[in-house]
Amino acid sequence: MSLARRNTLIASTVFRRTVLSGLIGVIGVIGLVWIGYAMHRAQTLNDVSASLGTEMEGLEGLYAEQGITGLVSALSYDGKSTWEPDWLYAILEEDEFIIRVMTGDDETLAGFDGIDPPGGKTRTFIEHADLSGHPVLSFRLPLEDRSAEVIVARFVPDRLVILQEWLVRASWLVALAAIPILLLTGFLTSRSVFRR
């Protein structure tokens, strides 16, 4: 094997190893960020869901006294619902957890077209803070036969969740930026082998 071919083979091997090890490191860091975010998000949703279940038990008794049945709940995070019927109006809030509870019969719910802010077409019916200490707003919609109760609970993520979300968003940019950087690093490393 000639010296030139041997040097080319060594440079190619060093280049591949440098780029491969760098990619493994970048993918590993991004993977840890995504796994941590997914686990924290799942745990938070479970906690919120448990709080909602406790709240639902109390609401069932309260609304039963008023003759309102068919309590329905939906839990969503960042606009992505874990369960959402077709008739449920989507509320999108950035960086917030949203819980919506609706009561009423099918005809009432079918006529529900959304939530207006207090002071608009709807009026604030009840305000309390039973879900993990966060405020809960209930709106009574002016429907003809029976009012639908809508409870909207916004859960603002803690600093860790916000940090994880930004890291997840930034991970795509990091992955794109890492490719040319690793290629350049591999090239410079392979050249430096022969300077020693």
Task: Note down, in words, how this protein is organized.
By secondary structure, this protein is an alpha+beta fold. The chain has one domain (3-192). It is built from three helices and six strands, in the order H-E-E-E-H-E-E-E-H. Strands 2-1-3-6-5-4 form a six-stranded antiparallel sheet, covered by helices on one side.
In short:
With 196 residues, this protein is α+β, with helices and mostly antiparallel strands. The chain has three helices and six strands; from the N terminus they run H-E-E-E-H-E-E-E-H.
Spatial separation of the terminal alpha carbons: 21 Å
Number of helices: 3
Overall shape: it is rod-shaped
Radius of gyration: 27 Å
Structural class: alpha+beta
Mean pLDDT across all residues, rounded?
A: 55
The strand order across the widest sheet is: 2-1-3-6-5-4
Helical residue percent band: 40-55%
Count of structural domains: 1
Main sheet attributes: strand count, strand direction, barrel closure: 6 strands, antiparallel
Given as residue ranges, the uncertain stretches (5+ residues, pLDDT < 50) are 74-156
User: Helices and strands, in N-to-C order?
Assistant: HEEEHEEEH
How many beta strands in the DSSP annotation? 6
Strand fraction equals: 15-25%
Give the helices and strands, then pairings.
Blueprint: H1 3-65, E1 72-77, E2 80-81, E3 97-103, H2 106-110, E4 123-131, E5 134-140, E6 149-155, H3 159-192
Helix pairs in contact: 1-3
